[in-house]
Amino acid sequence: MAAAATGQHKLPDLPYPYDALEPFISRQIMELHHKKHHQTYVNALNAAEVSYSKASTPKERIALQAALKFNGGGEYSDAFIKLAWHINHTLFWQNLAGAASEGKGSGGALKDGPLKKAIDETFGSFDNFKKEFTTTTAGIQGSGWGWLGVNPQNKRLEITTTPNQDPLLTHAPVIGVDVWEHAFYLQYLNVKADYLNAIWNVINFEEAEKRYLAAVGK
Amino acid sequence: MAAAATGQHKLPDLPYAYDALEPFISRQIMELHHKKHHQTYVNALNAAEVSYSKASTPKERIALQAALKFNGGGHINHTLFWQNLAGAASEGKGSGGALKDGPLKTAIEESFGSLDNFKKEFNTTTAGIQGSGWGWLGVNPQNKRLEITTTPNQDPLLTHAPVIGVDVWEHAFYLQYLNVKADYLNAIWNVINFDEAEKRYLEAVGK
After folding, report:
1. Which residues of A touch B36 (CB under 8 A)?
2. Which contiguous run of DSSP H or E holds residue A48?
3. ipTM for the assembly
4. Mean pLDDT in consecutive groups of 10 residues from the start of chain B, 207 residues
5. At what angle do helices B115-127 and B103-112 cross, to 10 degrees?
6. Residues of chain A contacting B37 with CB distance shorter than 8 Å
7. What is the CATH architecture of B27-85?
8. CB of B178 within 8 Å of any CB in chain A?
9. Alpha-carbon distance B20 to nearest alpha carbon in chain A (angstroms)
10. What superfamily in CATH does domain A100-216 come from?
């Protein structure tokens, strides 16, 4: 995601049409999620940044810096949350792709290569990885995200979660899955587990491998 | 909500039919919300309580606390919620949405200026929850004043005596209102059971 000038963030286009991820994620969900939810947060982020840029006294600027920064104790300021919304969803659209099983893209297909090797080494098998990711992510008590990420200290793949719209700061993101109810409810109703099983068909493992290689420094 | 023996909590029946709150909250939402979501909290609470009763070390007990809080809070919050809703008076379906003259109305006007101001402030505060949670009107036990507050996720309201609770988890409105949470928050005032709210208020202020 390129850096934008103050208040100039844009809703990124999806890399595929709204119905590309069917039948696993419905066109209706993709349209609302992208054109309503994500757009709302881009607009709000831009408005917040413009307000901050108009601050004219040192006192105002200091007050606004605090508002923009991480506020310790795991609580984020409202503006930071909006930025995190934008980051998380931008990552999300890019790590989805039309399902290979539907002949719609490369989604769901993990080719032989460094990522597959690392997954097999870390989790035993691709299936074990998916099972562990799904279980951990289903266990989020509220809104949040499930992540596969690279631990920067040991360069290992690890599964982790973030609550609400918190950005992933402890790991380099490789795959993110939105489990806010708006991400699945219209199609899967209360059965979050069915959504988590289905989404594997549209995970873009090629994008994931690019991120993995960048994170481990190759 | 009567105290239940360990692991014996039950899903309470709704005090009205699943379609009673239409058109403000759809029958489909009420069915899923009650029979699936709330039932799941009850089942998981019972399982957590049974495990807790068998735990023999502090570490085991601490490990179960998140499950007890989440599912116990879910059960408490939803039980309160069903009872503070009622078919809309405007639809001739019940007393929902009608705040009669009385102690609660007086207290709302004293605290917020007017019923409309109260609803506006409640909705603004509740719409501002970042993620899942609940909006509450409650009585502050220290000064007996009505205050608006929120709780995240399924945390129970512990700082105030609950008078009115509104669920803003997306499952509470998404099928009907989609992303427009503000429309749900405006609509729900038509089905808030102010009679029940006043009972709670009087109990909380000690009358």
Report:
1. 189-190
2. helix A39-53
3. 0.93
4. 80 98 98 98 98 96 96 98 98 96 98 98 94 97 97 98 98 97 98 98 93
5. 70
6. 190
7. Orthogonal Bundle (1.10)
8. yes
9. 21
10. Iron/manganese superoxide dismutase, C-terminal domain (3.55.40.20)
